[in-house]
Give the backbone structure.
Amino acid sequence: MALPNQQEKVTLDTFLRGLWEENPVFVMLLGLCPVLAVTNSTMNAIAMGLATTFVLVASSTLVSLLRKFIPKQVRIATYIIIIATFVTIVDYTIQAISLELYNALGAFIQLIVANCVILGRAEAYASKQKLGASVINALGMGAGFTIALLCLGTVRELLGAGTILGFPIFSANFEPWVVMILPPGGFFVLGAWLLLFEYLKQRREKNLLEKEGVTSGSQ
Amino acid sequence: MSQPGQTNAEAQAHTPPPTPGIKMLLTLGGISMLAGLLVVLAFQYTAPIIAENQRIAIEKAVFQVVPGAMERRDFFLDAQGLKTATEGDEASGERIYAAYDANGQLKGIALKAEATGYQDVIRILYGYDPACECVTGIRVLKMAETPGLGDKIAFDPDFLANFNALDAALNAARDALANSIVAVKHGNKTQPWQIDAISGATISSAAIGRMINASGQRMFPLIQKNLAQLKGGQ
C-alpha cells in the first residue's frame, strides 16, 4: 500500500465506534435510502439490518485480505464487484428463507450494492487495516446500522400500525397514524431521532465544559 | 497525481510507481472469477429451496381462493384448447391452476389477473367455480397501494365478502359474460355481479373489478368449453 503503516490496534473501541461515536446513520448520515424506505415495520428493519451487516462483514473481510494485491487504479471497481457478489448471495438466501420477506423488502436488497456505508468501509478502513480490525469494525458498523434501522422501524410500526413485530400493543381504540408507515413518516421519525441524539451530545459537552470550568476555577 | 498546493517532494512521496496494465487485468479478472464462483455456488444451493417456496406460495394462494381444494394441477389454456403443464415447460396460452378435492372432484379454477391500481400494477389470483359460474375468492399477490386505504383490498373482510359467490354467469351464446363485473361505489351494490367498493379506496376496488372482468370475459368461456377435460384432470 502507498499509505504508511497506520495499523490500528484491535480494541473494544474498534467495535463500539460504529454503535455510537461514528454511527453510520445518526452521526455519519450514510445509507439513508434504505433507512427511510424499508423501516415501515420492525421485521423489515431487522432483515435489512442483518442483510447489510452480512454484506459489510463479508466484503470487508475479502477487501482486507486482498488489500496488498489490489492496484489503486482499479480498487473501486474491485470493491463493487466484491460487494455485488455478496449482495447477490444475500438476495438468494432471503428468497430461500421467506418469499414474503423478500417481497416486502423489494428492490432494496439489490440496492445494498449502492449503500455508501459498505463502500465507505471498504475504502476508508478495510483496505488499510488488518483482517481482525476490519472484521470487528465492520461488525460494529453493521450493528450500529441495524440498531438505527430498529430505532426507526419500531417507532414507525408502533405509531403507524399500533403493533410491534405484528403483535398489537395498544387497545382496539387506537387509531393508527397511517402517515408514519408512509414515506413522510420515515423523515419525521429520522428527524426526531437526530434531534434527540444532537440534544444528548450537546448536553454532555455542556456538562463537560462546566466541570472543566469548576476544576480550573478552583485551582 | 499531484494536487495543486502540494510541494514537489510531497507529490513524489504520494505517487505510487505506475501499475502495469496486466496486473490490473489480472486483478479484475481474478476477482470476477471468484465472484462468479461464489454466485454460482449460492445459486446452486438455493435454487431448489426457492422453487419449493414458490410452489408452496402458489399452492397456498390457490387453496385459499378455491374453498375445499386439496390438490392442484396446472394447465395452459387458450383458444386452441387445453394443455397439461409439465415441469419447466412453457406452452402457449395462459397458465391456470385447476384445484381438486380429496376425491379428485374439480372444485374450481384459480386464475391470475392484473390491472393498474392507484400506484402500481395490482396482481391477484382469484378462484372461479365452473359449476355455479361464480367467483369464489381473491388473493392479492402483489400491490403497492396506499397503506391504510388502498391496501385494504387485500384483507378488508367486508370487501372480500364480495367474492364469496360473485355472479359470473355466461351469456346465451356462451362466449362472454352475461353481465360485466364492475365495482360500484360503497353501499350502491344492487346486483350479484357488482363489487361493493371500499370507501376511500374506490380506485383500487375498481381495478379489482376491471381485472376480474377482463380476465373472466376471456377465460370463463374457454374454461366452460374445456370443462370435461378439466374435470378429468388430464
